[in-house]
């Protein structure tokens, strides 16, 4: 065996000092003739992954899905992406940890740039349920087998991929989220009507993930106890009830943080006497500036949830961005909130559909609950659209209406809106302008040639030179009942790689 030679720390430090001194006097070397210019490089997205939560109550479900450069398929003057060499996209079951379930074949989608409504079959027991695996999930299993679904795509099919868990009619109710290491949610607690609060954790990777769950309510930081160090096995799902942690609380904020690996996470809340559960969309990680798009008018006042996760009190300014312009719903005085707290602030009518811009002296997280069916619909802070955003599951008919809420808090925005249906050639497109500091609402309709009442996707593409634009899809029943709100998230076709120069990383003998 070759002996291992250890280098004393002093020798390493001395060598680093010599290299640093040389670098200081010589500066970076000029690139030789064979070196490429040191500029950022654009590369195509060739791999994408999402995870969909288990269907509430078990049973089969629906996933509204589109992949393969929806922007190219829907842009004016562009041909649809050729299926040749387009890669692969598929849905794969993520069974509940500890359950013995029959293996299900992946569900494949091979036609790029075309929306589809894919049926996910119900989980079926393969034998007696065992209590092995994750101890947290073992004592909290539902009687009906549950499983999440991973959504993966490669090659061209990975570009602009989007998936949403949908109703049987094709209406997306919760976006299938990207795996991450720090995910935030905010919404009502038990005193706010959420009798049951369930957290779903999905691991799409080949290595286990370790998850810590932090809960903040209007009473302060809650000691999570058993909800720390949760192990989510590879390619499996863990469900946790957080109802007891939110008992007596009007507001609940949930942070899902991994110390090992990554997970996708979803939170659903159910009222006391049954009825439709409400999904909480993940909100942007705490920041001193947030924008919450898609706050429509409703029969009852909406509520703003603000989370202050740090040790310093917050002073929050709130600006409403409406069709008439900007105004301060709470006047010129900031909203003062204590540290380590989650607060509910009722909103007076904002003057139509609006976005809320929040600024604070310390990082905060935020979401808005709009009364509607069940507990209502929740929209949350999100980032401006980069390249494009895709809302995969939309439907009209039977009194349902789809509206896109576009907000431009800074400069004016020019946006292309494209509707795509599964019917070949069923596509419509228009360009709209959003004035700076305003919100514009645009009805989204089923493209001509598509079957009446069928599902369709909407692509939101900011045009070159456009100012930052935030968007959300609002689905209503009749004139005023809000059914769902889907904040628009960027669906990328390319990534920007920063320039790389020659550098030293380590010294070894």
Q: How would you explain this protein's 3D organization?
A:
The longest helix has 18 residues, at 9-26. It is globular, with a radius of gyration of 24 Å. Strands 19, 20, 21, 22, 23, 24, 25 and 26 form an 8-stranded antiparallel β-sheet that branches. Strands 10, 12, 13, 14 and 16 form a 5-stranded antiparallel β-sheet that branches. Among the domains are: 178-281, TM1070-like (Hypothetical Protein Tm1070, Chain: A), CATH 2.60.290; 285-381, TM1070-like (Hypothetical Protein Tm1070, Chain: A, Sandwich), CATH 2.60.290. By secondary structure, the protein is mostly beta strands. It has helices at residues 9-26, 70-74, 135-138; strands at residues 41-44, 47-52, 61-66, 88-95, 107-109, 116-120, 147-154, 162-166, 172-175, 182-188, 196-203, 209-217, 220-222, 230-232, 236-241, 251-260, 264-270, 278-280, 287-295, 303-308, 314-322, 325-327, 335-337, 341-346, 354-370, 377-380, 389-394, 400-408, 413-421, 427-434, 438-444, 456-462, 470-477, 481-487, 494-497. Mean pLDDT is 84; it is low at 1-30, 71-84 and 128-142.
Summarize the topology.
Blueprint: H1 9-26, E1 41-44, E2 47-52, E3 61-66, H2 70-74, E4 88-95, E5 107-109, E6 116-120, H3 135-138, E7 147-154, E8 162-166, E9 172-175, E10 182-188, E11 196-203, E12 209-217, E13 220-222, E14 230-232, E15 236-241, E16 251-260, E17 264-270, E18 278-280, E19 287-295, E20 303-308, E21 314-322, E22 325-327, E23 335-337, E24 341-346, E25 354-370, E26 377-380, E27 389-394, E28 400-408, E29 413-421, E30 427-434, E31 438-444, E32 456-462, E33 470-477, E34 481-487, E35 494-497
Antiparallel strand pairs: 1-35, 2-7, 3-6, 3-8, 4-5, 4-7, 8-9, 10-16, 11-15, 11-17, 12-13, 12-14, 12-16, 17-18, 19-25, 20-24, 20-25, 21-22, 21-23, 21-25, 25-26, 27-32, 28-31, 28-33, 29-30, 29-32, 33-34
